[in-house]
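Protocol step 4 of 6.
Sequence for Group 1 truncated hemoglobin (Amazonocrinis nigriterrae CENA67) entered exactly as in the expression construct, tag removed. Do not edit the line below.
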Amino acid sequence: MADESTTLYARLGGYDAIAAVADNLLPRLASDPQLGRFWQHRGNDGLRRERQLLIDFLCAKSGGSLYYTGRDMFTSHQGMRISTTDWDAFIGHLNATLEAFQVPEQEKQEVLAFINSTKADIVEV
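Step 5 output, structure tokens:
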């Protein structure tokens, strides 16, 4: 395993920084006129669980020691009818969040690479 100080997780600032990114990103997504439908009729407990799963996923994928216990991306998003335009809107919000936190370009590209690797499992239409 790589020296922990060289992981993307460490370069992003660790758990607290990744949690702050999730806390910035999720409201952007939920309030987007196109994407908001995915968060309608969700209870607070479900929203908290989704936030934690997102944090765990980002931490695990970036080389942190957290273990992602959620379902795989295909199972989690199957039947949601997520389109390419939905995906593009999501990526736009993710970019805006990463820019808001002044994530350096190399780290930003690494985050986008592992997020984009999930596209085929998430986009249906």
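Step 6, annotate. The longest helix spans residues 14-31.
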